[in-house]
């Protein structure tokens, strides 16, 4: 979860759905570095981003023959960084912030193809037709809310399986990365024990701190029935940390920028709204029922 800071402002830049004129009048459409500088200047002025914010505008890439180009924008502040996509019209006048969807392709299938689910913890029937992929941070309060939502909801849906992927936001949550590595160590020692540690961390989130997270993870590992000596060795080794980093890179590939982010059969849902989770599941179940008929 992102807090009220410049990182939150960067998230707002990414999520705002609107168009802005880059300039009131232009004698000729800007191209190349001129267009990139124009976009940077517009964003810096519109959002009052001073010299402490670094803005790097990438090379525009036209979407087919639409006359609209996709532009990657990287932003860095003393608090952290973010990468967003924006779009600019061919004449260089309008900047579009939000989402652009190609209605001739299936974005849900594209999301499913990009998410790596092998060698990840799975809760429920591995053959269940509905897959929820959860990208989450163990120190994030909204992720804990989602944990409670799913714990109450999933027993009612045997058609659903949950796959977990770590996405600790280090600059906001100082002990989240250690917890992520710990849960990966639990999974590597005994896949079923992952979910025991998953519950223990979220149920005790309020009493864990950066100063005691290591000892807490050892305590919870023992309660989960794990071999604590092997667990310690895993915490100190590179394998679990590499797996956590791979989860984070996979999340970035599907534009995960905040936690929790779910993909329900490829359909993105950010946050912990129980009604939205149930709506997505019920919709897919209804579609499957209709297809059988």
Task: Give a description of the structure.
With 293 residues, the chain is α+β, with helices and mostly antiparallel strands. The protein folds into 2 domains: 6-97; 109-292, Glutaredoxin (3-Layer(aba) Sandwich). It is 44% helix and 20% strand. The protein has 10 helices and 11 strands. It has helices spanning 6-15, 32-46, 107-114, 141-153, 176-189, 191-203, 213-223, 228-236, 238-253, 274-292; strands at 18-21, 54-57, 61-62, 68-77, 80-89, 94-97, 122-123, 130-136, 160-166, 261-264, 267-270. The strands form 2 sheets. Strands 1, 2, 3, 4, 5 and 6 form a 6-stranded antiparallel sheet that branches. Strand 10 (261-264) and strand 11 form a beta hairpin. The protein is globular and about 65 Å long.
CATH topology title of the largest domain:
Glutaredoxin
The secondary-structure class comes to alpha+beta
SSE order, one letter for each helix or strand: HEHEEEEEHEEHEHHHHHEEH
Low-confidence spans: none
Helicity level: 40-55%
- Let me know the number of strands: 11
Distance between the termini: 42 Å
What about the largest sheet?
6 strands, antiparallel
The coarse overall form would be globular
Radius of gyration from the alpha-carbon trace, in angstroms: 22 Å
Compute the number of helices: 10
- Give average pLDDT, whole number: 90
CATH homolog superfamily of the largest domain: Glutaredoxin
CATH class of the largest domain: Alpha Beta
Strand percent estimate: 15-25%
């Amino acid at each position: 979860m992102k807090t009220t800071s410049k990182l939150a402002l960067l998230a707002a830049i990414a999520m705002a759905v609107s168009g802005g004129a880059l300039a009131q009048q232009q004698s000729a459409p800007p191209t190349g570095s001129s267009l990139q500088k124009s976009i940077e200047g517009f964003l810096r002025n519109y959002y009052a981003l001073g010299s402490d914010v670094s803005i790097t505008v990438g090379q525009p890439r036209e979407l087919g023959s639409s006359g609209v180009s996709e532009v990657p924008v990287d932003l860095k502040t003393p608090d952290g960084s973010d990468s967003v996509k924006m779009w600019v019209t061919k004449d260089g006048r309008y900047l579009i912030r939000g989402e652009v969807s190609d209605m001739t392709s299936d974005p849900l299938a594209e999301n499913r193809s990009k998410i790596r689910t092998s060698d990840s913890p799975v809760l429920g029937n591995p053959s269940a037709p509905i897959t929820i992929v959860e990208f989450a941070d163990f120190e994030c309060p909204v992720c804990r809310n989602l944990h409670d939502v799913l714990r109450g909801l999933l027993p009612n849906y045997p058609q659903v399986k949950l796959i977990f992927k770590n996405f600790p936001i280090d600059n906001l949550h100082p002990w989240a990365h250690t917890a992520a590595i710990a849960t990966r160590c639990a999974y590597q020692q005994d896949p079923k024990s992952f979910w025991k540690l998953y519950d223990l961390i979220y149920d005790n989130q309020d009493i864990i701190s950066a100063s005691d997270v290591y000892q807490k993870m050892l305590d919870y590992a023992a309660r989960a029935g794990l071999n604590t000596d092997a667990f310690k060795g895993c915490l100190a080794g590179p394998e679990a940390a590499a797996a956590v980093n791979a989860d984070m890179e996979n999340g970035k590939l599907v534009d995960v920028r905040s936690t929790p982010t779910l993909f329900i059969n490829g359909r993105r849902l950010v946050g912990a709204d129980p009604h939205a989770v149930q709506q997505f599941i019920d919709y897919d179940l209804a579609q499957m029922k209709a297809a059988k008929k």
